[in-house]
Amino acid sequence: MRRASLVQAAASIDPARVQTTVTLSAHDRHRRRIRMVADDGGDFLLDLPNATHLRDGDGLLLDDGGVIVVRAAAEQVIDLHSSTVEQQVRLAWHIGNRHLPVQILPGGSLRLHLDEVLVTMAEGLGARVERLCAPFQPEPGAYDPHGLVGAAEPLIRWAR
């Protein structure tokens, strides 16, 4: 079975080495060791030293030098838009107080997994709620090395 043990930032992937893709939900893009099935039907072992937040476009470097590119699956999400900065900050505070995964979109709107309780809360706080089927890339934790180095680091090695 093919084995992927390193994560490669999207900007540093050699297109000639790409063998296939794997499309995963946000939840399934936070893994350490698991058997996965690529989009072409071939299986491989994801075998990272630490649980890692994989981003859309990241590469999983295979032992044979090939790369499997990670794609973010479309999911049921809500985008929350506010008309004022104060309203958006208040909304962000309430979401943060619930410790929910959130994606910050360009312009400051927030994306979350669809949850009708959150829809009611957001509308009650004056937000405009947009329901979508779209990729979800929540913010990594503040101490997540992948979140800190991101695409600036061409090859992320977790092995000591």
Structural description of this entry:
There is one protein chain. The protein has 160 residues and is of the alpha+beta class. 17% of the residues lie in helices and 42% in strands. The chain is elongated and about 55 Å long. 19% of the residues are buried. The strands form two sheets. Strands 1, 2, 3, 4, 5, 6 and 11 form a seven-stranded mixed β-sheet that branches. Strands 8-9-7-10 form a four-stranded antiparallel β-sheet. The longest helix has 13 residues, at 85-97. Mean pLDDT is 89; it is low at 148-160. The chain has three helices and eleven strands.
Query: Portion of residues in helices?
Result: 10-25%
Radius of gyration, CA atoms, in whole angstroms: 17 Å
Mass-distribution shape? elongated
Q: DSSP helix count?
A: 3
Poorly predicted regions: 148-160
What oligomeric assembly is this protein in?
single chain
Q: What percent strand?
A: 35-45%
From the N-terminal CA to the C-terminal CA, the straight-line distance is 24 Å
Secondary-structure element series: EEEEEEEHEEHEHE
Structural class: alpha+beta
Index terms:
160 residues; alpha+beta; seven-stranded mixed beta sheet; four-stranded antiparallel beta sheet; 3 helices; 11 strands; elongated; disordered C terminus
Tell me the layout of helices and strands.
Blueprint: E1 2-8, E2 18-24, E3 30-37, E4 43-53, E5 59-62, E6 67-72, E7 74-81, H1 85-97, E8 103-104, E9 110-113, H2 116-124, E10 128-135, H3 145-149, E11 155-156
Parallel strand pairs: 1-4, 2-6
Antiparallel strand pairs: 1-5, 1-11, 3-4, 5-6, 7-9, 7-10, 8-9
